[in-house]
Amino acid sequence: MIDATQISGIILAGGQARRMGGVDKGLVEINGRTMYERISQLLAPQVKEVLVNANRNHDRYRAHGATVVSDYLQGYLGPLTGLASGMMAARTTWVITVPCDGPFLNQDYVMRMASEAVEDTRIVVARDSVRLQPTYMLVETALVDDLKSFLESGERKIDRWFVKHSYRTCDFSDSPDCFLNINSEQDRQQAEERVK
Fold first, then answer.
1. Taking CA 125 as the corner, what is the angle to CA 77 and CA 72, rounded to the nearest 5 degrees?
2. How many domains does the chain have?
3. Which residues make Cβ contacts (< 8 Å) with residue 29, sequence separation at least 6?
4. CATH number reported for the structural domain that contains residue 12 in this entry
5. pTM surpassing 0.70?
């Protein structure tokens, strides 16, 4: 199994959050703590380093001790661009992603994903009981040039990229809360009730 010292965590916070009125979702607070802080606290013990992919409010993220990586392509082009940018900055042979609006990450998330990276596997994608969760991925950093070529050809869809490679899925059907995300003020209020 891949050791945690070989994995960098990337918190994907580079989007525009249109469904939440354009706020920076990583900095939205749940009971006085930003979602970035909550996720970073859960992710940091599981990996060698944590990077945050963000395209605004860099000073605010750095104030929380974050290592910030901007999208290398401009225009808010989606999570694959954030992944590629994090892969370019990572100092490890693997990276693992978490969206900034998923504050209920499992404490064994990285270990479970890494356990699926066997033989020639280059990508592991999380799944719940219903579908894939493609913004939760473990990816071999050596794929960065391939991903950049994919993006620079105009492609954006995550699943169209990972199906080109040897990938496996990791079953989290026993942990449905892991993928709960915050897309509205109502979601945020419900999350506050859950973490009291």
1. 25
2. 1
3. 35
4. 3.90.550.10
5. yes
Q: Would you say 95 and 110 are in contact if contact means Cβ atoms under 8 Å apart? A: no
3-state secondary structure (DSSP) of residue 167: strand
DSSP 17: -
Helix, strand, or coil (residue 67):
strand
Distances (CA, A) of 187 to 19, 32, 57, 97, 172: 11, 15, 23, 22, 21
- Name the helix (H) or strand (E) containing 21: none
Q: Which domain holds residue 49?
A: 4-194
Q: What percent of the chain has pLDDT over 70?
A: 96
Q: What's the CA dihedral at 55, 48, 103, 166 to 10 degrees?
A: 80
> Cα angle at 190 between 186 and 193, to 5 degrees?
145
Residues paired with residue 141 on neighbouring β-strands, in sequence order: none
Task: State residue 21's pLDDT score.
Answer: 62
Q: What is the rounded average pLDDT of the residues 75-95? A: 94
Q: What is the spatial distance between Cα 150 and Cα 120, in angstroms, rounded to a whole number?
A: 21
Give the closest residue to 139 by CA, choosing from 153, 150, 129, 130: 150
* Angstrom distance (rounded) from CA 195 to CA 10: 23
Triad 101, 105, 110: Cα angle to 5°:
120
The confidence score (pLDDT) of residue 65 equals: 85
